[in-house]
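ESCALATION

Customer reports they have been waiting on this structure for their group meeting. Please prioritize. Original submission:
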Amino acid sequence: MSNANIRVLVIDDLESLRKLIRPILTQQLGFLDDNITQIHDARKALAFLRTEKIDLVLCEWEIPPQTTGLHVLKTIRKDPKLKNLPFIMVTSESDQGKILQAAQAQVSQYVVKPFTADSFSVKLNQALKSNERPQAKRSPATSANEVKVMIKGQPCTSGSIVSISPGGMMAKLVVHRGLTVYDKLDLKIQCANPSTGDTLVNSVFGELARIERDLENKARTTGNYAFTFLQMDPTQKKFVETIIGWLK
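Update from on-call: job pushed to the front of the queue and completed.
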């Protein structure tokens, strides 16, 4: 679908978001002005989504009456007809706790103001493509493995794979407060073949997609970290395919 055919709903408290984003959408990214709708009230916005066909939602964190974009997002994700709708939170809120809340509620992208047209365009395209990609089924890991998360060549936390697919993995890791959703990281993976004892080690570039509680860990020292694999070369793809077979 070309940008000219994409219908956008902007949910905000004032005119500021629309004035900021409309020129980027229409003048630089090819969206049609007539396909951009703005609503200031969260309840009216949700009612509108249930009756009109919308392809993308851009939403502020704080919106009237006395609610948040997070509430709108959670409501959309619970609706069977709207649950896959691309949703971008556009806000000045850079608090890591709120970013995590949005990620756990399955926000498509989180954009912090101020931003450039180029950076916004990247986030927008990623949000739209995420709705087009089929979700690969992750295989649960049953064999011995180790994951080390690296920042600038230095390990920051480690653990083991919970489940994995060609496009990403869930890993149980020691909680590290410095890791933030959307961080791009080097994931050093070591896995043993349970039949032969052979070991493979490789690094895969990945983006932290969300963090979930490890309900089995009462001390809250570990969490379940979901990563999306990025920019894999043929060797890395073959590595992931091989360990998927080993971990089953």
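Sent to customer with the following note: Residues 1 and 50 are 21 Å apart (CA to CA).
Escalation resolved.
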